[in-house]
Amino acid sequence: MAASDGTCINLDAWAMSPPRIQSLAQGNVPLIVEGAMGLFDGAPPIGQGSTANLARILNLPVVLVLDVASQAQSVAAVAAGFANHDPAVKIAGLILNKVGSPRHETMLRRALEPLEIPVLGALYRTKTLNMPSRHLGLVQAAEHADLDLFLNQAARLVSDAVDLDALMALMQPTKCADVAQPPLAPPAQNIAVASDAAFAFAYPHILRDWRDAGATLSFFSPLADQAPVPDADLVFLPGGYPELHAARLASNSAFLSGVRNAASVYGECGGYMAMGQGLIDADGTRHQMLGLLDLETSFETRKLHLGYRRLSPYGFWQGDLMGHEFHYATTLRARGQPLFAAKDAENSSLGDIGLINGHYAGSFAHIIDRQSHDSTDTNR
């Protein structure tokens, strides 16, 4: 998002119907969709939600980025495998990544020539583009020590290595569906959204849905010890990294008192943990949180929880929802009324998750969209 200087919309071929995806992909600027994981990797059992799945829905050509650090002629077998795996997915170009030398590049290009797939560029190995990572992916752009320098260096390297004219020539307008899926209705009329490095994982399409439905959104920074606007009907605490800032959050009195006095509060993942009684960080130190839910979580002993979720709310939300769960926190205690009955991508029951305590509710699930008939069968 920082590199594009715009809003980046999440397009999820598992959780969203094709009309919803096509509607979100509309725009008057060139569209580049960054794939997640491998091209055909998605939810079991058939890979629904994969980048290939999304390419089929939007009829987009695919530019395949190949890590060639330890390959020579074998690169042709890899590329051919991707190109022939699904005739409905068109591999329109290749970018070779982590090339070792000019001689290495020559070997790779010669091996790929018989496939007649355009090689759009070759990026050589460099430490310039290395970025630190943590358990939920890369360190956020706002935390980068010199983001502008990094982006400028990346732009120069890519501009020198990739045929940008050929890349742009692959772009084409997307076609909007005749019938758009209704958006996710806002849970309140006046919503205050926490937004900073501790609570950064709010989906832009959901915030846009709420605005389009007439809701008023305001934003505040818990890390800057800001309180939500006092007339908010709902405070939304998105996911993020509260465990990295737990001591600071626990001492920010304006934030704590403002949220505790809010008419209603909803939290997802990191926001859910912040709503609990206490949060134990990776060093084993316990930090007092908002105390709105009878919940205690810990990062001292980490355990991965990952996967798509079908969510049937017991309250707070209206209608079934689609979401996902991705966190390493361990729940030490969660007592009270559950928020959702949850199933995984294969429709197997996961039991109840989350908590409701009066006007306070949350869970580890990130809501992506409302459930529709089409959103359960988008692989073809």
TrEMBL record:
Coiled-coil stretches: none
InterPro entries per the UniProt record, alphabetical: CbiA/CobB_synth, Class_I_gatase-like, GATase_3, P-loop_NTPase
Domain of life: Bacteria
Keywords noted in UniProt: Cobalamin biosynthesis, Glutamine amidotransferase
CobB/CobQ-like glutamine amidotransferase domain residues: 190-368
Pathway in which this enzyme or protein is active: Cofactor biosynthesis; adenosylcobalamin biosynthesis
Protein name: Cobyrinic acid a,c-diamide synthase
